[in-house]
Amino acid sequence: MVDPDKEAADLFIMNNAKENDVVVTQDHALASILVGRKLSVLSPRGKIFTEDEMITILQLRHWSQKQRRAGNKTKGPKAFTATDRKHFCTNLRKIFLQKKEFAEKGRKYSNQNGNPNQIEDW
Questions:
Q1: Of 33, 58, 69, 102, most Cβ neighbours within 10 A?
Q2: Rounded distance, CA 16 to CA 8, Å?
Q3: Considering the entire predicted model, what is its pTM?
């Protein structure tokens, strides 16, 4: 449970998420912070956020906020569809498979070399 404050959930996630965790969020600002910390970040529609695109995403978000403050209407998100759900499931599976392969490679390497802390040769 987190405080009812506006940003309490985001702060909890930022303070407790660790490298290689998977986070699902539609908050672009939170996504940009987490991607920079090497977490896998996925939107509810299945978009995998990458560090390369975060500046553009945040600039578009800022532009939309400025338009709304000026009294202009901006488009909201499209309705969530079955395709969105499928895209999410597919990409979440991809992330988990990548993490599983990484973990298995680490176990194999540590069994061969006897030192799980030496991973630079992967």
A1: 33
A2: 12
A3: 0.68
